[in-house]
Amino acid sequence: MDMDMDMDMSKQQQQQQEEAGAASNNNKQRAVAAAAHALAVAAVVLVVVWCVHFRGGVALRSVQNKQLIFNLHPVLMVLGPIVLGGEAILSYRSLLLVPRAARKKAHMALHAAGLAAGVLGVYAVFKFHVESGIPNLYSLHSWVGIAAISLYAAQWAAGFLAFFFPGASPPARRRALLPWHAVAGVLVFALAVATAQLGFLEKLTFLQSPPLRLPKYGVEAMLVNFTALVVLLLGVAVVLATLNITTDGTTRSSYSAIV
């Protein structure tokens, strides 16, 4: 009898420890998600300040200054696949009080907006190159960028067809596809962040070369480097916020609300 009581007490204590650990983990994940939101706002503000204040503004059409067309590219690529894409990933972590169906719609809508901004950003840089007589797709940044936006579009289409489209896959198939969808989404997001790092580096290298010779330790150079760092930290925060560290040390994605 005493042994049974001891075992029951031991199970209760273990359950209490697991619940306390889960609560502590959730608090940490919320803190990381909040940091990701703050970094997202900072990234947008910094890239807009750079392109508007230091580079003269943005425009989809410009006869006199073609650089204004290019300036749309970094703004839209940070805003789209990275900030809106990151917010779409975080929607399952941040919108806990929202019904599952609404979270799914927010996830798809944010990714759709991010994809639209990304496509427009790619169009802007192609338009700038054509009107300025600059070759297209000659750099590593451009190659990786085309791969990233193409995979982003494919990931969104696959997710829409599998999890959102009326008459989508049956529950068993959705559960089987979910881990692949979650992992692919995080990988595409990480690729977008890596592409942005290459882009910041490439543009700053151009600005610091003749004829502009931007000072290497000037305010604009520091702003570009700091913006790239904020985008990198945003990427890390989004990835960490999507992982749920369990009590046994394993990890699982927070996308379980999709199915």
Automatic annotation (TrEMBL):
Per UniProt, residues of the Cytochrome b561 domain are: 35-243
What does the record give under GO molecular function?
A: metal ion binding; oxidoreductase activity
**Membrane-traversing stretches:** 31-55, 75-96, 108-126, 146-165, 177-201, 221-243
> What cofactors does this protein use?
heme b
Report membrane topology: Multi-pass membrane protein
Q: Which InterPro entries match?
A: CYB561/CYBRD1-like, Cyt_b561/ferric_Rdtase_TM
Question: Single GO cellular component annotation?
Answer: membrane
* Highest taxon of source: Eukaryota
Where is region (Disordered) located?
Answer: 1-25
Keyword entries, A-Z: Electron transport, Heme, Iron, Membrane, Metal-binding, Oxidoreductase, Transmembrane, Transmembrane helix, Transport
Q: Which SMART domains match?
A: B561 (SM00665)
Subcellular localization(s) per the UniProt record: Membrane
Q: A Pfam family for this UniProt protein?
A: Cytochrom_B561
Q: What does this protein do?
A: Two-heme-containing cytochrome. Catalyzes ascorbate-dependent trans-membrane electron transfer by utilizing a concerted H(+)/e(-) transfer mechanism.
Protein name per the record: Cytochrome b561 domain-containing protein
List the source organism. Urochloa decumbens
